[in-house]
Amino acid sequence: MVDNSSFSGQTYLVTGGAGFIGSHTVRHLLDRGASVVAVDEFNDFYDPAIKEQNIQAFETHPNFSLYRVDIRDQQALAEVFSRHGEALKAGGIIHLAARAGVRPSLMEPRLYLETNVTGTLNLMEQAREHGIQKFVFASSSSVYGSSPDQVPFKEDQDISKPISPYASTKVMGENLLHTYSHLYGLQVVCLRFFTVYGPGQRPDLAIHKFTRMIDEGEPIPVFGDGTTERDYTYIDDIMQGVMAAIAYDATPFQVVNLGESQTTTLARLIELIENAVGKKAIINRQPLQPGDVPITYADITRARSVLNYHPSTKVEEGIPKFVDWYMTYKKRIPTCGLAC
Ligand SMILES: NC(=O)c1ccc[n+]([C@@H]2O[C@H](COP(=O)([O-])OP(=O)(O)OC[C@H]3O[C@@H](n4cnc5c(N)ncnc54)[C@H](O)[C@@H]3O)[C@@H](O)[C@H]2O)c1
After folding, report:
1. Which of 42, 193, 320, 321 could form a disulfide with 48 if both were Cys (CB 3.0 to 4.6 A apart)?
2. Domain 9-339 maps to which CATH number in 3.40.50.720, 1.20.120.420, 3.30.2350.10, 3.30.70.270?
């Protein structure tokens, strides 16, 4: 069990703090009495107004500071660390900023590499320079590539064959962190997130996108025959794992799957959303997309044992919760998504 009082009075840098998982992380840390330095560039991968909304509640919080900084910009990062580096020594870095998404990474591989790899290296360098030890990294289930015969995915299986630029950047991020942990004693936890959803979920991700489109009577693009499977993880469960990873210090380098350890087919997912929205989906069937994997499925034995992680929200419960959130907030949610 994580001792919540251990966060109180500590300072943490949360990169991507205005994003979906980042803003939940900020809230959880502030609620536990920590100070948070958030770094986010508010890019237009999806409507930045959503990110502004995500952080609105924190902006007047006395323990919250925000830097609108690009992690690729070494100079701007150095200024943030020159101000907060000392305080971060006892706390640490929770690095969630990234270009996310498999399909868009095929269009802009260089941007993904520069943000997800060089940006991560820039943060590691700042950590080294300022003697900051704790580094939690948002990795991804996509590192496992296309190996349906090897499910559920275990942390120690081969990840040398990623099948999208996005997945490759996450493998590279993990590898670089291992090197810095070995050379400089950086205390690293790489969290391999399995499709995260819940209030505030990115509008480009299937659950959010389908909910909006079904609600608005638009046809939904369905890639493949609906048999692809995903391990969907509710944000509250992910937060359990993130907080435990921040508190974790048993080994200098650790990699942990954070999933629900239950798979749901795309067809079943659509059915759950239809039931929660109360409308039938209009299906626009399309071929499977390059870079997509047929299945993600987490073995969470290690997460249970090293992080005391016990996810409890099944999709049957989580989807209606997400749709409730969507219905309440949809008037405030800009819907231009990826097109903005
Ligand atoms: N959501 C998921 O299902 C999922 C699954 C696996 C891994 N992840 C990883 O978790 C992390 C958070 O994902 P999310 O779903 O919250 O995404 P998100 O896009 O909502 O959050 C990422 C944030 O990082 C910021 N950012 C991007 N590039 C930046 C840069 N160069 N400088 C500063 N800020 C920058 C963005 O503006 C955004 O606010 C990412 O690293 C993602 O790859 C997410």
Report:
1. 42
2. 3.40.50.720
Helix orientation angle between 119-130 and 74-88, rounded to the nearest 10 degrees: 40
**Which tens digit of pLDDT belongs to each residue from 177-221?**
999 999 999 999 999 999 999 999 999 999 999 999 999 999 999
Ligand 1: centre distance to CA 279 (Å): 31
Lowest-confidence segment of 13-17, 57-61, 203-207, 336-340 by average pLDDT: 336-340
12 in Cβ contact with 37 (< 8 Å) = yes
What is the residue type of 8? Answer: S
| pLDDT of res. 291 | 79
Q: For residue 116, how far is its CA from the centre of ligand 1 (angstroms)?
A: 9
Q: Helices 119-130 & 165-184, crossing angle to 10 degrees?
A: 10
59 confidence band (pLDDT: 50, 70, 90):
very high
Does the pTM surpass 0.90? The reply is: yes
Tell me, what DSSP letter sits at residue 164?
S
Q: Is 95 in the pocket of ligand 1 (CB under 6 A)?
A: no
Beta strand pairing call for 134-140 and 92-95: parallel
Among 244, 246, 241, residue whose Cα is nearest residue 257? 241
Question: Active-site residue 112, yes or no?
Answer: no
Q: Tens of pLDDT along 123-174?
A: 999 999 999 999 999 999 999 998 777 899 999 999 999 999 999 999 999 9
Phi, psi of 214 (to 5 degrees): -65, -45
Of residues 67, 112, 144, 166, which has the active-site annotation?
Answer: 166
Alpha carbons 179 and 53: distance in angstroms, whole number: 37
The residue whose CA is least distant from atom 19 of ligand 1 is 19
| Average pLDDT for 13-19 | 98
- At 329 the pLDDT is 82
Report CA(255)–ligand 1 centroid distance (Å). Answer: 19
CA distance 16 to 1: 26
